[in-house]
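Re: [ENG-882] Designed sequences occasionally contain unexpected residues at chain ends

Forwarding the minimal case from QA. Structure tokens:
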């Protein structure tokens, strides 16, 4: 029970974070991003269930196609009337080479058919991971202009972003961004624990590295903002 990520509890944790953001920053863009992340987490549960189930219709279809192909190949060979006395040594070598090429092509075709289900599921997971990667970048964009150094230096230019947050509010906002990035990685981790596909595992690892790197950058800002406020709110989200 405590050795794997629980998709239901992960979704509930994201939903709790969404409520906290809405209560602290009503109608904020960050809250809407978290709402999208919550929807993706719910969709992930359905995708994982689909990935975990064998596609019996596809498997039966592939088996039928393979058997029919082998029967056709066997029937074609049975129609050939070949005797070694009809061939010279050079012709015999050419026939063997052509036969080996045919075997290789048939083997490649069989491998393609056998791995169809894996590739279909892989494509769906990779599309979902791409969506999570986009969400991570959106979260990073929301924190991009929240610079704690402006709390000490009030000099602004006409093009400076308007920020009216206190040090405490800035601390909470950046902390929410960091939590969302961490949870984005956890949603990706749900795919990793339900798949043994090397391509999927590699993509999940890349996404986790991305979210960790972006979160580390945010925590540098958080450490700077704490110099201006030494009493941060104990409000936090427990990991599932």
């Amino acid at each position: 029970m405590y050795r794997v990520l629980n998709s239901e509890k992960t979704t509930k944790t994201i939903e709790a974070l969404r409520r906290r953001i809405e209560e602290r920053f009503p109608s904020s863009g960050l809250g809407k991003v978290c709402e999208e992340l919550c929807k993706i987490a719910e969709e992930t549960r359905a995708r994982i269930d689909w990935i975990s189930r064998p596609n019996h219709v596809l498997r039966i279809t592939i088996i039928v196609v393979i058997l029919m192909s082998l029967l056709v190949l066997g029937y074609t060979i049975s129609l050939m009337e070949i005797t070694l006395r009809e061939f010279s040594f050079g012709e015999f070598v050419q026939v063997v080479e052509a036969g080996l090429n045919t075997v290789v092509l048939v083997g490649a075709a069989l491998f393609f058919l056998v791995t169809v289900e894996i590739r279909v599921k892989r494509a769906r997971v990779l599309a979902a991971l791409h969506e999570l990667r986009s969400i991570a970048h959106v979260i990073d964009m929301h924190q991009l202009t929240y610079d704690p150094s402006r709390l000490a230096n009030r000099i602004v230019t006409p093009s400076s972003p308007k920020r009216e947050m206190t040090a405490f509010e800035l601390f909470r906002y950046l902390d929410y961004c960091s939590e969302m990035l961490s949870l984005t990685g956890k949603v990706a981790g749900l795919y990793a624990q339900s798949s043994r596909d090397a391509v999927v595992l590699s993509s999940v690892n890349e996404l986790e590295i991305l979210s960790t790197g972006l979160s580390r950058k945010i925590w540098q800002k958080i450490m700077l903002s704490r110099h201006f406020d030494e009493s941060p709110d104990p409000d936090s989200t427990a990991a599932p």
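QA comment: On inspection the terminal residues look reasonable. The two ends are 11 Å apart (CA to CA). Proposing we downgrade this to a documentation issue.
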